[in-house]
Design goal:
540 residues, two-stranded antiparallel ribbon, 6 strands, disordered N terminus
Length: 540
């Protein structure tokens, strides 16, 4: 690296140097114009620095003195004292030259002056008060450590300032008043670019170190207990809780050591995704996550009561008795004796022939039940949930549109649809069959439904092979072979899909259906129906 005024001493300027002879005033090395010609080198300076004249000339000499003080072989300048002439003899310039610069001393003298300067020369003291110009350092700047000459602090590199790291700010022309001197530009151009790659390397290493920590934390086994745990604790899992939320609740109750361990155990158990349901679980303290998942999947841990779609009221009563560990028939007696106090809607139990007023209102769902509850409490929960779901569909308005007499009739149609349909895809067609048959003017059944499910409801059975002679001769309001129209009330507790299908049936002209090998086939005429019956008999 070659830099003027650095190394073991100053060397004479080479005539081919493009900056050879450049000065701030007077004649150049070749006797031509000065570097700035007739222009004012201090044009655009702030007020206080004077116009061309004595004050300007004074600062010009002051700048050169400071520049020379920082160069090898230079003589420190005292701005407040008289300086001797280091070269002897008077001259037009301060140093005895026309351009204000001293001639380079011989190499031997340069070396001696360098030694004296390194040993004894103090750093020049800047004059107090506000300064201006490129040579003026910022308030808190420190001198450059890589050379005696005082320069501007190097700007923050573009890599860390958000700019282009290959862009040199010196390429853009600076305002006139902020341009560097020729010597500063020369030294700046010769100095190697500082790219800040050392700091960038530190940042990269820090990121890699952090990534290594994250990788370790991520792939390390999550905290977990060992064994099946001890004691007993009840944990309630709210409806709609994701797996992570379940794990957090179990951790709060001291069942598992971490939610992450529980989530991992659920992932590893093929039955867990579909088997974990909301409700109240009886678990143990400090269980391994795998043991907790396995226990939650077993029926013994569940304190929930699940009512399947289409369940009859008598089956619901039996489930409640079993869950509350009551004598069989206890809940059925409570339902019969307290039906009016359980919160039924006003349009329920509107027919004296209704077998059970709670039928159709024990909504199929999962309920949180514990041993401290009473049968009436559980029944109220079910009836309340039924009313909430029925209110979403405006049963009274929908019943009028479908030609029914009351909202209860619509719930009854839904219960028949649920009982006779074998899949959710059948429900809309099954609902159309019911509405078409209810029409007293239809030429197929003349207003009779003729559903086996209504007879089975009377008998509390689920038989498929019922003699026609027995059904047609059995006088009961629920027997749709004996009476036209709907039964007095629902024959079960329908689910939401059956209810929606009853509100929006198909309009394809279906009148008949037969279930063959678990699949329901529909027909529009009696002749088509007879063919389906023959096929059914072959599979019996």
């Amino acid at each position: 690296m070659t830099e003027y005024g650095r190394g073991h001493g100053s060397e004479p300027w080479h005539p081919e140097d493009p900056l050879y002879g450049e000065s701030y005033g007077g004649q150049g090395a070749y006797g031509g114009q000065a570097s700035y010609g007739n222009q004012d080198p201090y044009a655009g300076q702030q007020p206080g620095w004077g116009a061309p004249g004595q004050e300007q000339q004074h600062h010009q000499y002051e700048y050169d003195a400071y520049a020379q003080a920082g160069q090898p072989g230079g003589v420190p300048y005292d701005p407040y004292g008289q300086q001797p002439d280091p070269y002897g003899g008077a001259a037009p310039g301060y140093y005895g030259t026309h351009d204000g610069y001293p001639p380079p001393p011989p190499p031997q003298q340069q070396h001696q002056q360098q030694l004296r300067h390194d040993q004894t020369a103090p750093m020049p003291v800047m004059p107090p008060g506000p300064q201006a110009g490129d040579w003026q350092a910022a308030e808190h700047d420190e001198p450059w450590q890589d050379g005696p000459a005082r320069r501007e602090p190097e700007p923050e590199h573009a890599f860390f300032a958000g700019g282009d790291p290959d862009h040199d700010e010196d390429e853009a022309p600076a305002p006139r008043g902020n341009r560097r001197s020729a010597r500063e530009r020369r030294d700046k151009d010769q100095r190697p670019k500082r790219r800040g790659r050392g700091l960038a390397t530190v940042v990269v290493l820090a990121v890699l170190a952090g990534g290594g920590y994250l990788a370790y934390d991520r792939f390390a086994p999550p905290p977990d207990y060992e064994g099946a745990g001890t004691g007993s604790v009840q944990v309630e899992i709210p409806d709609g809780s994701p797996v992570m939320q379940m794990g957090l609740l179990l951790k709060e109750e001291g069942v598992v050591k971490s939610a992450d361990a529980f989530t991992a155990a659920v992932t590893e158990n093929a039955k867990a995704e579909a088997g974990l349901q909301p409700g109240v679980y009886t678990l143990r303290k400090e269980m391994s996550a795998a043991s907790a998942v396995a226990l939650m999947l077993s029926p013994e841990s569940r304190n929930n009561l699940t009512i399947p779609e289409g369940s009859r009221a008598v089956a619901v009563y039996e489930r409640i008795d079993k869950k509350l560990e009551l004598k069989t028939g206890t809940t059925k007696k409570v339902a019969a004796s307290q039906a009016k106090n359980l919160g039924l809607p006003s349009w329920a139990d509107n027919d004296p022939d209704i077998k059970d007023p709670l039928e159709g209102f024990l909504y199929p769902s999962t309920y949180e039940v514990n041993k401290k509850m009473k049968p009436a409490d559980v029944l109220k929960q079910m009836i309340e949930r039924a009313k909430q779901n029925y209110a979403r569909y405006d049963l009274a308005g929908q019943a009028r549109k479908l030609g029914l007499d009351s909202p209860l009739d619509l719930v009854t149609v839904a219960s028949l649809t649920q009982a006779e349909g074998t899949s959710h895809d059948d429900f809309r067609k099954m609902a159309e069959v019911i509405y078409n048959r209810l029409d007293p003017g239809n030429s197929q059944t003349y207003g009779k439904l003729e559903f086996d499910s209504t007879y089975n409801y009377i008998k509390n059975q689920s038989e498929l092979d019922i003699p026609i002679s027995a059904i047609k001769n059995y006088d009961n309001p629920y027997n749709t072979y004996f009476y036209k129209g709907l039964p007095p009330g629902p024959i079960g507790n329908p689910g939401e899909d059956a209810l929606k299908a009853s509100i929006n049936p198909t309009e394809d002209g279906w009148y008949y259906f037969v279930a063959i090998n678990g699949k329901t086939s529909f027909a529009k005429t009696y002749a088509e129906h007879e063919k389906l019956v023959e096929e059914f008999n072959k599979t019996r």
